[in-house]
């Protein structure tokens, strides 16, 4: 598989975790990568390590996104940015948390599409990769509003395939189960207790696993669009409701 057809990529939420892992793999693949996060300081080490182009940008602001990304002629857009997950039940989710999740997970993704997709469609070449979650397709307690936004990403990815029919632009949703990024720690007030509950003794996915999946779908022949890929740990049952603890 080859990425020779692509030259430039944009990765949001690139400062750490899955986003940083994707940036590393894309740079190894020879792409010019714009690594997007809210703070340029968070991207400094990654830029020094990989040679990516750090870009401080709040993707919830439409005009700023159009100005920063609209002229890049990006061949690849990875919508990875996601707001922090906080635990609780739906009716107790604070208005601030609702706004943040909606702004980043939904409005941010739509803003990036508005900046990048017209150019892709005009050139007849491009690939959009949306990072979803198994929580968006299978109900799990503890993260209702986050799961709602990921369900919307699932629907958006399918709708994009219809909207872009005949343009040659490919769309992929990658839907991971539990990945050891630290995001789960926000589900509990005690972060160390969260680490024990969600990571210790579990053979979870790693950010590099998701980055390798991104490279696979990008490198597939142009005639092949991996429209939906669900990736879960071997020990996590379908939908994520059960997870075997090995130790």
Automatic annotation (TrEMBL):
Keywords: Oxidoreductase. Belongs to the short-chain dehydrogenases/reductases (SDR) family. PANTHER family: DEHYDROGENASE/REDUCTASE SDR FAMILY MEMBER 11, DEHYDROGENASE_REDUCTASE SDR FAMILY MEMBER 11. This is SDR family oxidoreductase. It comes from Reyranella aquatilis.
